[in-house]
Amino acid sequence: MVGQLIDLTFAIRRHSPSLKRTWGLVLGLAAAAATWAGVLLARPDARSDVSMLLLVGWFVGWLIGPILASGAAVLRPEYFTLLPVPRRRLAAGLLASAFVGVGGAVTALTMVALVGHGVRTSSVVATLVAVPCAVLFLVLCVAVSRTVYALLGAAMRTHLGVEIAAVQYGLLIATLFVGWLIVSPVVNAVPRFLDEGLPHAAMSAVLGWTPAGWPVQAVEAAAGGDIATALGWLGLLAGAAAVAVGAALLLLTPYVGNRTMRRGRRPIGSRILERPGMLPGNEFGAVVGKELRTWWRDPWRSLEIRSSIWFGLFLAAYGFIADVPQLAALAGVGVAMMVALSGANLYGQDGTALWQLVVGQHPRALRADVRGRQVGLVVFFGIPALLLSTVMIVLTGDYDLALPVLAGLVALCGTGSGIAVLMSVLAVTPGVDPHRRINATDAGENSFAIQIAMWLTSLLAAPTIVAGIFLAIGPGWPPAWFPAATVAIALVNAVLMAVAVGALALRQLSVRLPETFARLRYPGMARAHAGNGWLDRFAGQAEKEAIKAAAAKARSRG
Predict the structure, then answer these.
(1) Distance CA 325, CA 342 (A)
(2) 232's torsion region: left (phi>0), alpha (psi -120 to 50) or beta?
(3) In sequence order, what DSSP letters do the residues of 163-212 get, joined into one string?
(4) Segment 45-60, tens digit of pLDDT
(5) Does this model's pTM top 0.85?
């Protein structure tokens, strides 16, 4: 059975997008080459620190890699729920299949560098100890990776799991945007690091007690002739690998319980919305109430908001670390920037629930649905963005940036809400049905639409961004009327884009509502091109990307 599961894994990987496979192989080989180069080029006094730091990188990569990649090529236990297969055999086969693929092969190639580290110590015993250390560390990485993946899948039914996933995504997005501020000094310090190792002995000690430091400690102890200590570190590594394998086998069993946790109390948001007069008593008020409750309660909607907040926090952290406090003051602007990106697939996140709008299609209902979704986006992203900006401006003391930041928040929230609903109609992408979602990315995503949303937001909010930059250049430079003009520009920019782009989304939804529902209900169905306008061409390209994503998910589900 193990061979059959491995064959299934190979089949899934063969049918995954070739670009992802190619980039995965290229990046994996580059990381392996960097590891080998670090071990070979490091001086003897620094080799231990270099090896431990590199192994830490691989360990962390295995922890977050499958999660951020949505685990599309991972066999999930629930696929085999109805098969008459002993659960222990199934769990063992699923764990064995996790070693198959580019990740396992490249990591195995990299772990040979640990043997090279033993060879460079000129000790036969150290070289012999390095062999089981490399094997055990590979097993530890893969087993912990599958354990964390399974735990996060279960944790997505809890607030803690959503928060863990949000931290990961926030860190990833912030690193992609401004990580170069940290990477550049690190790259410049590489030659010194290879010569001298870590600057403080305490840092080396901390790394030595991490799982990534145990194999290096065992090799170093063996090279020094301390066989008992080497065996102790090796035994500790073996014990950790055994515990990780046991945890993975325990978790790699089909889960047949509820997909969401029962609440012990009613959400706070429900009490607020039930107050008389809080919302209009019409279609618009109903949609706004539904959207506010959904953003508050749904784990996958909540993940979008929390990821945005963590993105802003990590943006501020990078600013403080790089001694650029102005970047920290823009943390709230980063949250506002995520309005269009996080809301670019609202209808796809709701799944086939769109049928309720189809059967009750009416101009008032469609208008209320589009505008209500915009209000929900502005409320749930605008308030955290404003609070985060206020806190960061107070902490940094850059009060001169308060007005430009406020203008940016207003413009980005208004513009982003319009772009979000437009992308949600034109580039609707089906994901896993809400009741079957496990991983953090199961709600569906369309990278093409997200990229367009990001650039379109920057373009349409450009008047406010330019005015804010001029206002922030320096106190006393702009004329006395310029601050008031910047605020006016931001308000006009936000309202105009929210109304105009939202109206464009409403028009598209009015003529393509049945088609939009069909694309959610029957992924891969060819769309009927209604014209050759730029919106039609964009929708066609977005659907091609959605079909690829849906096909990959369908193949991964077996």
Answers:
(1) 26
(2) alpha
(3) HHHHHHHHHHHHHHHHTHHHHHHHHHTHHHHHHH--S-HHHHHHHHTSTT
(4) 888 888 888 888 888 8
(5) no
